[in-house]
Write a structure and sequence with these properties.
CATH architecture: Up-down Bundle
Number of domains: 1
Number of helices: 16
Low-confidence stretches: none
Largest sheet: none
Distance between the termini: 22 Å
CATH class: Mainly Alpha
Number of strands: 0
Shape: globular
CATH topology: Growth Hormone, Chain: A
């Protein structure tokens, strides 16, 4: 499940070091932001895909859909690697994101089949710990593949990773029992979506994660441009990205251990408050320096804000899915659609606004942090700690 959840990160993070070589290959200027569309469309494809995989997973089971999504994932990777134009590449990235929604959605549904409440939060943080090995290793791998011969190799690696996961998943048991499967029809699917959205706990935590991901996705899409164009430190990008991923893995391990002593709800609240506070400090420092603070100070506050959000997300997702045991696939689809699709749109607003300074990052992180905390507080008024 950890490897399955990492498939999206692998597709994203191996490509980032190739942007510098890809711009001239597609006739783009050195400071062009058009390649950020390869990430935005990938996330948009994931958002659409979650609505497809979730209800199907509740109807026919988890395992058949996992293999189907991996086949589409590999095919899109090959098309992207052979893309003769930017338009073909962008189309393949949308389809690739659609396919990546399968492993991501099914991971959450499978874990919910087996666990709930704080126990599920512990499982999700453990999966997230392994998940962050992807961002640690993928940029290094991507840089090596570019140096080996071409940016196209970074895309082709996606097909290889899908094949490895498919072979490994042959040993995975089906976790959805026959008696728990739902009939597949438009009416039952619509009723399932309504049940998920009508639950205040699920909706509140889903919106909180969505705003948090709006900030986190802008980090993924814009960090390369910030280091290269804004601060003129291109050699810092891969080391920082890998270091940030190592920090994220450490945060996940710490979360997993803390969840042995505290419940998920107070831990999520602490992480949400920390994200808002560090984002506020980031905005204050950025505004005080005219949009371009010293790189060391900016990196410190930026990293603290990202670490707080990384600590919040898996626990909040577990709390969102907690009331939805009978609709785990559909609920995972709603959570995935909102957090990925709307989160990508929020991130795109930030990405497009970056032009020579990091003020858009400071503003968006703080605004999204406040909104995420407000949604979490709203959800907490309707939820109670789970007793496992």
């Amino acid at each position: 499940m950890a490897l399955a959840s990492a498939m999206a990160a692998i597709a994203i993070d191996t490509l980032l070091p190739a942007f510098e070589q890809m711009r001239p290959a597609f006739g783009l200027s050195a400071d062009s932001t058009q390649l950020s569309l390869t990430l935005t469309l990938f996330f948009a494809g994931m958002a659409v895909g979650t609505l497809f995989y979730g209800p199907l997973a509740d109807a026919i089971g988890r395992k058949p859909l996992l293999f189907t999504s991996l086949g589409i994932y590999a095919g899109a990777a090959v098309v992207g690697a052979l893309a003769p134009s930017l338009e073909v590449l962008l189309a393949s990235r949308f389809v690739w994101g659609f396919a990546a929604a399968g492993p991501r959605t099914l991971t959450q549904a499978i874990v919910r089949d087996r666990f709930s409440g704080t126990a599920m939060a512990r499982a999700m943080t453990l999966i997230q710990t392994v998940f962050f090995l992807g961002p640690i290793l993928a940029p290094i791998l991507g840089k090596g593949l570019v140096a080996l011969g071409s940016w196209r190799y970074t895309l082709l690696f996606g097909a290889v990773s899908a094949g490895v996961l498919a072979l490994w998943s042959l040993r995975l048991p089906e976790t959805l029992a026959e008696e728990n499967r739902r009939p597949l029809s438009f009416a039952t699917t619509l009723a399932g979506f309504r049940s998920v959205i009508a639950n205040r706990t699920t909706l509140g935590y889903t919106l909180a994660v969505t705003f948090g991901f709006g900030a986190l996705f802008s980090f993924l899409a814009s960090s390369e441009l910030i280091f290269v164009d804004v601060y003129g430190r291109p050699s810092w990008f891969v080391p920082y990205f890998s270091t940030m991923s190592a920090i994220a893995a450490g945060v996940s391990i710490a979360n997993n251990q803390m969840l042995r002593r505290v419940e998920a709800r107070p831990l999520a609240l602490s992480a949400g408050v920390a994200f808002t506070a560090t984002s506020g400090a980031l905005l204050a420092v950025t505004a005080a320096s005219g949009g371009l603070p010293r790189i060391g100070v900016w990196i410190l506050l930026f990293s603290l804000a990202n670490a707080s959000m990384i600590g919040f997300a898996p626990v909040a997702i577990s709390l969102a899915l907690e009331p939805m045991g009978a609709l785990a696939g559909t609920a995972a689809a709603v959570v995935g659609f909102c957090s990925t699709g709307l989160g990508a749109l929020l991130a795109a607003i930030t990405d497009r606004a970056i032009a020579g300074d990091v003020m858009p990052i400071g503003v968006s992180y703080f605004v999204y942090g406040v909104l995420a905390l407000a949604c979490q507080l709203w959800a907490r008024r309707a939820s109670k700690p789970a007793h496992i």
